[in-house]
Specification:
255 residues, mainly beta, 4-stranded antiparallel β-sheet, 1 helix
Length: 255
């Protein structure tokens, strides 16, 4: 999945678009002919009921535009879904992801926007992995604690952007459908607002989950990080409830 922003002169604002790229792994992936591209979809805009209009867009003031950004392609029981990070009202409306879907007939890739969907941490970049053993999707996400708080005290200690761009708490989450997420626990946390654990890459390694984090510890701010940290979650599957439903009727099914 690839996202692109195209500057629209003379305003300096952007048109945010998303598209799917597919490569034929039986061919040379350095050859452009090995790749196919879907249609582009534009960010649909935010329904007025989802935003409090607390912040005006400002590149100089580090207030991002309403947009979808980094996305994940997931295969959910044969349906190809796209789950994208979504910024609304300068992170003030947090915990929302954009959902798309696409079909590939071997020649054409047809991509479409479906809906906005609640997702804890959906306002910041996340990376979804599927684990065959648990038959669950897993991700690490930054949970915002108080996006409506006064911004000025945060700015005085070096916080960048509006309060909802908080990245100091990194939570482990799991899901049956890559849409509805359960929290498994806290991977890392700082009480200092200018520190962060974010933009993770995740890898299942045996019984453990490895989480590589873009990290700020006494860095310039929570966005401009100064470290990469590696976190190992041992026996991570034991942290999840068994979400798989039983379809049988009767007393045995409830045990």
């Amino acid at each position: 999945m690839y996202k692109a922003c195209e500057t629209c002169p003379p305003t300096g604002r952007h048109t945010w678009r998303s598209l799917i790229l597919g490569g034929d792994t039986s061919k040379d992936l350095l050859d452009p002919a090995s790749w196919r591209m879907s249609n582009k979809i534009d960010f649909p805009g935010v329904p007025d009921v989802l935003t409090g209009h607390r912040y005006a867009w400002s590149a100089a003031d580090k207030v991002p535009e309403d947009s979808f950004l980094e996305g994940n392609v997931v295969d959910v029981r044969g349906e190809m879904r796209v789950v994208l990070r979504t910024i609304i009202d300068g992170f003030t409306t947090s915990g929302i992801a954009s959902i798309g879907a696409f079909e590939d007939d071997g020649t054409d890739i047809t991509y479409r926007f479906l809906q906005f969907h609640p997702m804890p941490g959906g306002q910041c970049k996340f990376y979804i992995v599927y684990d065959d053993t648990s038959d669950l999707f897993w991700t690490a996400a930054n949970i915002a604690t108080d996006p409506w708080q006064d911004r000025e005290p945060l700015r005085e200690v070096g916080f960048s952007g509006p309060p909802g761009n908080e990245r100091r708490i990194l939570m482990l989450q799991y899901s049956l459908d890559a849409l509805n997420w359960f929290q498994a626990g806290c991977i890392a946390m700082s009480r200092r607002v200018h520190e962060s654990f974010s933009y993770t890459s995740n890898l299942v390694l045996g019984d453990d989950l490895l989480v590589l984090s873009r990290t700020s510890q006494q860095g310039l701010n929570q966005h401009d990080t100064n470290l990469i940290t590696l976190h190992r979650i041992e026996s991570f599957r034991d942290l999840a409830l068994d979400l798989h439903p039983q379809l049988e009727r009767g007393s045995e099914a409830s045990r």
